[in-house]
Amino acid sequence: MCDSVLISAFVDTVPLARRTLTVFNDDEPEPLVRMLKRMVDSPAVEIRAGEISPETPENAVVVEDEDGTELAVSSISEISACVLLVNSDLYVTGTRSIEEVDTPAALRHLDEVRFSVTGKRKMLLIELSRYIESLGWQSDDNTLHAGFQYLSRIDDERGTRRVYDRLADSDTDLHLYGLPDRVPELSGDTTLHTESCDELRESWFVVNTDCDADMKGVLLADRTGPSQWRGYWSFDADHVDEISTYLQNRYST
């Protein structure tokens, strides 16, 4: 059984970053821009409209850190196609394969920003979880930890099942976590962690580690209510290893 110290404590204690997101909108529909602002709403993100000039990018989103250093630029259209104008069916049906994941840089660079999401805004966390799974697919001899709350969810969503079948058949050391309501049969060599405890029931995580530093990543969230989550993602290699070590120590087999 799990004790009182939970993986969700990382959501409270990780040093979180601040970002400025500037929208340069020449002709994209304004409702689309409003959707974008709602999607990335966080106290740690300042969202502002940029003044259009010949020198500024057209119909783009620019992300800067708290010192004003530019981190990434992505078009509004590619962000829209990724998280604004899609629904969860894209992930449920597996329409997009793990090789086709191409998360816009502007979203990736909202790392270490805490988000509280509900409803369609959950797509932001879903997209980043798929991105970290894709890092696992691209890595060599890596370890990937994934928490599903209930292991049956791997089979409930065909797209998820395809992703994890591919990972199980790769060189990835795959560890899956969740309550054993229905344990799926996966090809390849997969380690299942099925302790019945609140931590696994309420946590959502994907951690790719034991690989090159630039391929490491973690998404971590905990449930705060029905269809409500708070969480963040990080590509800091030391932080990724810290969470991986926690999982290995807590759920060693």
TrEMBL record:
It comes from the Archaea. Residues 119-221 form the DICT domain. This is DICT domain-containing protein.
